[in-house]
């Protein structure tokens, strides 16, 4: 121990740290680590040899174990970065009884919604070392629950993310709880514990549309809703009609038509509204796909947007700003919702889903849609 009291020994000691297996790891020096030149890819054994620690310590660092000194972790991380080592997901999962796989389960006809939410989930997965497995299904199909259960168990998923309308299915959520599968739900109403939801306040977003149209002076207003089995359909309808009613504008029942959140249903319903004995001066479509269908119907009938007809959508997908004229719509941050759901789910998985009252993973996650006014909005024709 006396040798450590010398200045040189103290400096050397500061450059070392106790590794997870009791061995000393030198402080990282990237220039001293040889570049990888062999034809085969580097292995965990190569990392351990170059870092001068055990294979078990490398595994602990890769799996983000707290039982490794910071300096040792820096050594291993430097070696991993220098030689380009990529951990085997299978080996990593076996080491801690995890698959590092998340599932996205959906029954949703809106392809753009799926793309956007999937992009957000993948952003979180790539950052945290997880992979995403996507499973489309039919909620009304016989054996739906058995199919979902088989998918989760076959893939050995660490957790799943549900989007509407599956996120609103009580029987599916009961199944996930029964098989002890962590989950996150994207929802427009709070039907679960805060830790298990990303809540988007669709009612408030739709209310902004109602206020916007009333402010422009529209009194002949129509609504194309989503499918009735979606809770978002009710939330958007009630928010929109309620905001108009507060401003003295009513929407005739004959001008409230159900769509399917698809382009085709938007065009069909748009034709019905625009070819009747009276026609509205403004239509609120409950998503951008249906709004695009209304554009098509108006084009076929020679109705100019926004001179003759104001159209407003919901979601603010990339399509909305590329339409001509650019579509006024409610911005629902779908990509961010997917990322938030995946971040929360991974955090819960990493902490064993303990979810204490003071845990960050037990706090509410809420996003608020906002109206984006573009070229498709105008006062009613004189």
UniProtKB/TrEMBL annotation:
Signal peptide: none annotated. It comes from the Bacteria. CDD domains: HTH_LacI, PBP1_SalR. The keyword Glycoprotein does not apply. The keyword Phosphoprotein does not apply. Keywords: DNA-binding, Transcription, Transcription regulation. Residues 1-23, 353-382 are annotated as: Disordered. One of its GO terms (molecular function) is transcription cis-regulatory region binding. PROSITE patterns: HTH_LACI_1, HTH_LACI_2. Residues 42-96 form the HTH lacI-type domain. This is LacI family transcriptional regulator. It comes from Nitrospirillum iridis.
